[in-house]
Amino acid sequence: MNFALYISAVLLLVIAFVHSFLGERYILTRLFKRDNLPKLFGSDDFTKRTLRFAWHITSIAWLGFAAILALLATPGTEKASLIYVIAATFIVHGLVALLGSRGKHLSWVVFLAISVSALISLY
Questions:
Q1: Which of 97, 28, 15, 23 lies closest to 62, judged by CA?
Q2: Among residues 43, 39, 117, 41, which one has the least CA distance to residue 83?
Q3: Which end of the chain has the least Cβ crowding within 10 Å, N or C?
Q4: Nearest to 62 by CA among 97, 26, 19, 22
Q5: Distant-in-sequence, close-in-space partners of 110: CB < 8 Å, separation ≥ 6
Q6: Cβ(90)–Cβ(114) below 8 Å
Q7: Measured distance CA(84)–CA(67) in Å, rounded
Q8: Per-residue pLDDT tens for 1-49?
Q9: Which residues pair with 43 in a beta bridge?
Q10: What is the pTM of this model?
Q11: What whole-number distance in Å separates Cα of residue 53 and Cα of residue 99?
């Protein structure tokens, strides 16, 4: 058991939640009150949605890294466990991008393809 990796994982959990909470509260909400954001697809709604899901996807990635570090700290962890965490992380990325952009930001297609590809590698 490697406690340094567990400490790293816990720190990533903390920073992921702090990043999302404080970013939403102090950066995104204030930024979205501005009237000079780029207007894509006819309004600034797409810009706001993209900024929001991109901000939170960073936190999701950190949660995925935390899970990987915790698995690496656990004796006997198999490669498949790591791949499942990676696939799950990118499924969540894809869903956040899909729902956050209402399907307009096509990154969701790539994120879901990454997830499926990772899962296929197990078979």
A1: 15
A2: 117
A3: C
A4: 19
A5: none
A6: yes
A7: 10
A8: 689 999 999 999 999 999 999 999 999 999 999 989 999 888 899 999 9
A9: 40
A10: 0.91
A11: 9
